[in-house]
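Two records follow; treat each independently.
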Amino acid sequence: MIFKLAHLEGIKAGEITLAFRKWKKPTVRKGSRIKTAIAVIEISDISEISLEEITNSAAVKAGFESLEKLLETLNTINEGTIYKIEVRYYSEDPRIALREHTDLTEKDFQLLKNKLERLDKYCKEGRWTLAVLKAIHDNPKLRAADLAVKMNKEKDGLKINIRKLKNLGLTISHEVGYTISPMGELALKRLSMND
């Protein structure tokens, strides 16, 4: 489940407590916790709802200025059931602290290197981690679609791989594109020396 940055900030501040999505099948369930760009968000409840049941007040609680604006967003998707999702801030994203970790010991670096090698080993395309880190480093905040073209990769697969790097604290997702984290910069420098 993806949230716009403004909505994430509203959830974190307690100003946004609802989300609405149109899905063929729900991608979250009650009690799920989602790591997002700025925090871990918890799904307190999820239920089906019709367009007619959505109120202006509910639209505002979902971060929209009016019911009309929410309906415009929902109507961009042709098929699916509408879900009303109760959301709340759960905790800081643990990856934020991780990505600021720049005093890697040799042991820390070897553990990270082993994780990257494992990602490379179990990918059908072969080694990709260093190439993706270098591409993001050289093209900060470039849209995923454009980065995929530059790398001659399929966009959705590339986004999944970048998420794997983000889970290790190496990249930062922005409203548009990605950058290398401080730890990612350090790791990239050391990996490039060994490559």
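The next record belongs to a different protein.
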Amino acid sequence: MRTLVGQVSTLFIGGVGRSGTTILELSLGTDPRVVSLGEVVHLWERCLIEDERCGCGRPFSRCPFWTEVGRRAFGGWAAVDADRVLELQRRHDRTVRTPQLALGAGGRRWRAELDEYTSYYVRLYAAAAEVAQAQVVVDSSKQASLPHILRRDPRVDLKVLHCVRDSRAVAYSWSKKVRRPEARDDERAEMTKYPPAVLAMTWVRHNLVVDLLRLLRVPLMRMRYEEWVTGPDTALNRVLTFVGLSPRDSDQVGTTWVDIPTVHTCSGNPIRFRTGRVQVRIDEEWRHRLTSRSRWLMTALTGPLLVSYGYRRKA
């Protein structure tokens, strides 16, 4: 494995899934200075072990982009022990471990294992930036504990985009059946569904863990779903400025649409397989379809944080 030089400018997208983050990431990918990688936290299992499809449509093992990334980062993907990465992930990359990560309260073995786990991401990010000739790498993993791990490594110039959406809208979205076209077996043919009570706790926990990064002096920008979908072009330039790039007028992102290019995202929402123009609009189906019981439960369990993000209890 080669030696890394300098820092890797990395934008980590945090929050809870079904908050519009996939289209936002794809819009960032229209800028040649940015390379969008999808949910890298799932690469080790879904791509290296299960060989699911890249956003370009090819199986991961036959994608020229990822093949070259693996060669530059590790001397080839065969050199990566995916089971070992997953073992480290299960042991350390969990929201319940965030207090320990924030305090740095661990012994020599703990630090060594975190360094090992982080090294896989750092090498992958650096290689992806080289292959794409990009200045910024985007990881939309949304795994709330992962940026707490990445921030420990001085080779990662980490910035976090905290994407927030009304918890009731998120709950409704996670209750719907969504197929995963990249799945290679029936067991993973659909995205996981969560009941409101479980989703409420996940929404609160993940958002608070991301919020904690600000106290740890990690550069963090919060963007509400409504800000993004009502002005994709303006939102794109806000994010570019946040990561240190100059704003630009794009012919691929407009006031109500995004022209999605072919991107090499390793995991994420099925919309990553689409290309061409997609209209961006506020999805408020939940206001009419979410049951009264679910609405009441979500409001009761997430109310304080919901209000702090600028949402009303009555919706």
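Discussion point: The chain has a mean pLDDT of 93. How would you locate this feature using only the token line?
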